[in-house]
Structures are given as C-alpha cells and as structure tokens.
C-alpha cells in the first residue's frame, strides 16, 4: 500500500510522463527516443529537480511506482529504467485531446508573483485529484499570478470554480473554467478592437469635418478602352490646355477604364465641361466621355474623398508623433550616455 512519500513520487513521475507534460517536454522526448523501447534511466530522471526534491533514492522511486494504481509508468526488469506504459499511449488526436483537457481545466488568478509551483500544487491537492498545474508566464519566464489547473474530472473542476471562496495565503482567487476564460478573453479582445476602430473612425470623422471641398469641382471620365496607356499627367496637361483650371488631384491609375478629376475651385468642373464638344475630352487618339458630378453622385464622391483625406492626415499625424517620440528617446539616450547614473 502506498504511503505519503510513495504517492508524491507516483504523482510527480506520472506528471512527467502524462498526457499534458510529455507532448511538450522536449528533453524527456529526446531521452525516450534514445532508447529503441522508450526506456529512460533513473539517473536521468533524478536530474528533474522536483523529483529529486522528493527522493534521490532510485530504489525508493521504483518501489513507489510499482504501487501505482494507474500503471501509467512501468519499471524494467533490473529496476534501473522507467517508461510510459506502451498500453497507454499519448492520445494522437491532439485537437480532440486538448478539447477534453479544457473541459476539465480551471483558470485561477491571484497567486502572489513570487509563488513557487510546488506550493501551488500542494495547495491545490485539497481540491483534487489534480493532474497538472501550469503557471502562466510572460517575458523572461516571469509568473503572471495565474494558473491553468487540470483536474482528474470535469466535475472536480466545476466544484473548484463554483466554491463560494477559495483563498491562497488569505488572497481570494478569481476562478472560472478554462473554456470560459478563453471565451471571455476573446470577447475582451474583440471589444478592445472595436473600441480602437470606433476611436479611429471618430478621429477620421472629426478630421473630415474640418476639411472643406468646393462644390461643382468633380469631373468624372469614363469609356477608356482596355489596354490604354494614359497617365494622370497626360490628363492634367490636357485640362490645363483648355483654360485656367487648377487640377488638385486625378483619381485614376494607369489601366483603369474610368476615373475622376478634382478641381481647386467651386464650379470648375462645370465650367470645364462647358468647354467640351459633345461632352468628350480628346487626348491623342482617345475620346473620353466626361461629366460634372452633381446631386447625390457628387455628395457620395465627396464623402468618400473626405474620408480618404482624413485617414491620410491622421496617419501623417500619428507618424509625426512617432518620429517625435523616437527623436526624444534618442536625445534621452544620448544624455544618459554622457551623464550615466551612479549606482
């Protein structure tokens, strides 16, 4: 019958070879592959600090593993090596297996940032059996104060989450099922994205309201033959030849079949149109149909133009702030280099 020491050894070794740890433990996988039958020497296993902290006696470890009810790990004949039981292989359906793990996993937040993993595992034993405690970390392996806890059953996970209060060193833990945690996280990300999008659209709208565009200044041209090689400059030059008309922008790319010309002054498009014969602009061999936009067509195009212009101005403004920030950061770096802080 297994005593307390045996149970700790069994739990630790079965964690190493378990469905959760083994697929992501590159060191242990390498050791398994070095033996054609998957045996790992006990002296290698004793390099695992958490097992060595429980016992460094190979004989004690072997005798404990032989008392395991799960029989996940087996011992070789001369009791010098162990391996995962070939009759209990790691699940191959990773997606399905991860889903099942999530169903019996809980999320807990509120652990002090200096908490040791063994202390958290020992704390969670009272709510178990627990298969695994995974500390969540960020850069430089810094503990974030939260864990994913895989319970033996889904019922145990739910019981832990649904308790009125769970305190770790007098600190109440925030708890939820891992599935709910991911759902809430996804919702939070979507809400932040939408808030960012709304803020950006509001800034663009505010900028657009400050831009004034003249009416009667948009000329639309169409009917360009496919494969033509007209350029914006050619279109601008042709319009200049027709009178004192200042073109601000030609909304057209080489190869397009239609486009727009935006004039600088009010009613320039209307006045320019009056200079044409049969509403056609002749450029070289091309006769292009044109018209001055008015009414709803003009409103829609101006609204679209204002949005584009406001977006570009906002980008330029943000770029300017970024450059200023980089410049100030560079100046600070130079100051620190000249006058280093004394420790």
Gyration radius, rounded: 36 Å
Here the CATH topology of the largest domain equals Alpha-Beta Plaits
Uncertain segments: none
Q: Strand order, main sheet: write it out.
A: 11-12-10-14-13
- Largest sheet descriptor: 5 strands, antiparallel
What percentage of amino acids are in beta strands?
15-25%
CATH C-level class of the largest domain: Alpha Beta
- Helicity level, as a percent range? 40-55%
How many angstroms separate the termini?
59 Å
What pattern of helices and strands is seen along the backbone?
HHEHHHEEHEHEEHEEEHEHEEHEEH
What is the total tally of β strands? 14
* Averaged pLDDT: 87
- Could you say how many structural domains there are in total? 3
The backbone outline, from C-alpha atoms, is elongated
Going by CATH, the homologous superfamily of the largest domain would be: RRM (RNA recognition motif) domain
Quaternary structure classification:
single chain
**Based on helices, strands and strand pairing, what is the structural class?**
alpha+beta
Name given to the CATH architecture of the largest domain = 2-Layer Sandwich
């Amino acid at each position: 019958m297994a005593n307390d020491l045996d149970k700790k050894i069994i739990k630790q070794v079965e964690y190493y070879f378990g469905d959760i740890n083994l697929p992501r433990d590159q060191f242990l996988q390498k050791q398994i592959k070095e033996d054609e039958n998957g045996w790992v020497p006990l002296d290698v296993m004793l390099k695992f600090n958490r097992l060595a902290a429980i016992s460094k006696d190979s004989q004690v470890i072997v005798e404990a593993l032989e008392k395991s009810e799960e029989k996940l790990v087996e011992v070789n004949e001369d009791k010098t090596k162990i391996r995962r039981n070939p009759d209990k292989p790691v699940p191959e359906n990773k997606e399905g297996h991860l889903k099942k793990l999530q169903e019996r996993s809980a999320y807990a937040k509120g652990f002090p940032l200096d908490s040791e993993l063994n202390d958290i595992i020992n704390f969670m034993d009272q709510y178990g059996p627990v298969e695994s405690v995974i500390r969540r970390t960020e850069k430089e392996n810094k503990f974030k104060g939260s864990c994913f806890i895989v319970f033996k059953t889904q019922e145990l996970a739910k019981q832990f989450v649904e308790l009125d209060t769970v305190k770790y060193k007098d600190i109440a833990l925030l708890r939820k099922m891992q599935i709910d945690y991911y759902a809430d996280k996804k919702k939070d990300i979507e809400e932040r994205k939408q808030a960012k999008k709304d803020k950006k659209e509001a800034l663009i709208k505010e900028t657009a309201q400050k831009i004034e565009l003249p009416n009667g200044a948009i000329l639309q041209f169409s009917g360009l033959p496919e494969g033509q090689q007209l350029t914006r400059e050619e279109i601008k030059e042709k319009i200049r030849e027709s009178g004192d008309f200042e073109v601000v922008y030609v909304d057209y790319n080489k190869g397009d079949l239609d486009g727009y010309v935006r004039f600088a002054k009010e009613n320039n498009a209307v006045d320019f149109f009056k200079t044409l014969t049969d509403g056609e602009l002749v450029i070289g061999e091309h006769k292009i149909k044109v018209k001055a936009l008015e009414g709803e067509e003009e409103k829609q195009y101006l609204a679209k133009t204002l949005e584009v212009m406001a977006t570009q101005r906002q980008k330029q403004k943000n770029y300017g702030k970024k450059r200023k920030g980089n410049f100030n950061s560079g100046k600070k770096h130079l100051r620190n280099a000249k006058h280093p802080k004394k420790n």
